[in-house]
Amino acid sequence: MGVCSGGGASRAVVVGGGIGGLTAAAALIRRGWRVTVLERAAELKPVGSGIGLAPNAQRALDVIGLGDEIRALAAWQGDGGIRTPSGRWLLRTDPQAAAEAFGGSVVLLHRATLVDTLAAALPAGTVRTGAAAELVDPGAADRPAVVRTADGDIEADLVVGADGIHSVLRTALFPGHPGTAYSGFTTWRVVVPDLGRPFAPHETWGPGRIWGTQPLKDGRSYAYAAARTPPGGRAADGEPAELRRLFGTWHDPVPAVLDAAQGAPVLRNDVHHIAGPLPAYHRGRVALVGDAAHAMAPTLGQGGNQAIEDAIVLAHHAEPSGDPAAGLARYTAERLPRTMGIVRQAERTARLTMMRNPVGIAVRNTLIGAAATYGTAFMLRSFADIATWQPPRRPYADQAREQDTTRRQETP
Questions:
Q1: Class of the CATH domain delimited by 11-76+103-181+276-353+371-402
Q2: pLDDT tens, position by position, 280-309
Q3: Which end of the chain has the least Cβ crowding within 10 Å, N or C?
Q4: Average pLDDT, the chain
């Protein structure tokens, strides 16, 4: 039974209420689509971890009027860099130089804050929680796509698959694709209370392990760690104890963070990525965004950023009338090369940061120190193509103001 009502604007259904799905909903609504977001969880409650939004994602959010709100959440941007477990600095970063090179600084915030900000930009009733969905028909030029829920089937002119790493929509669209592969390491993430003193943001590289500690705007700290482990592991005595075994002897403030993590939920996740590209990021009237299309290792911090870019580009190409095939083809052509390039770069970075061979680590650290002597511009070059990305559409608010000005000028 189709529950899609007739008349009005073209209808889009977004499957998944995470960062990519909510951004897509906000952008599509501003394009004139009538949007429903289906989220299988009982509430929009993201995992308790931080996310860094680089200038590329901030410019994408500018399109839907949220960029400045996110920038206002920036925490301390003092000197940071890469360290060894003993605390020796391999590389010191200059945040001002990075901001000048990329057109802005990375903003670190809690994922819940970002999700709340995106959800608040949607009309009431847009998001339906507790609504698991599966794709029945991807649709075609002569028929709508059909999504099945417990309350009935929904016909849609456009379906956005934003259902994450283990996407059921991706499997439905491309059953012959192998999907994701284990990246060889596991991550831990935790947000801890205020440590009571400032510290320099850092990422520390040890043998087959990394640790990062970053301040949040509200005084809390976000810590993340990774280690090469077999998939599917769990610590019998709890993940805080596992982190203490792996990182307890590392430099300050790591032990202090571990102490604070005793009373906080620690998230542990095996890292999976899409090693081989999908044939396309669309089929019929369905488009994939974010991890559903291009799951990647977190070593560049671009997973959520690329989901936001996807959403803005998709809305730019998705005309809210007629057959969306041409627009979705342009979406694939624009996004697939960029995102898979970043997937491969993240994989190379993981191999570099997660080395275990002592000789290789010594060579790597020496090269990092040598690169630092050539200046910040040299060190930032590898990230420039990612962070300097520009969205294909100017902010909707700017366009609305121009249209309003034109109407007033044309009114006698």
A1: alpha beta
A2: 999 999 999 999 999 999 999 999 999 999
A3: C
A4: 90
Peptide bond before 337: cis, by omega within 30 degrees of 0? no
Each domain of the chain, given as residue ranges in start order, spans 11-76+103-181+276-353+371-402
- pLDDT, tens digit, for every residue of 306-353? 999 999 999 999 999 877 899 999 999 999 999 999 999 999 999 999
Distance CA 312, CA 154 (A): 24
From residue 213, how far is each of 13, 55, 187, 222, 249 by CA, in Å?
38, 20, 14, 6, 15
Q: Is the dihedral of CA 403, 407, 408, 409 positive or negative?
A: positive
Q: What angle do CA 87, 246, 366 make, to 5 degrees?
A: 40
CA 147/CA 232 separation, integer angstroms: 32
Rg of the chain, C-alpha, whole Å: 22
Rounded Cα distance, 55 and 59, in Å: 6
Residue for token pair 């982190």: 243
User: What number of CA atoms fall less than 13 Å from residue 241's CA on the CB side?
Assistant: 5
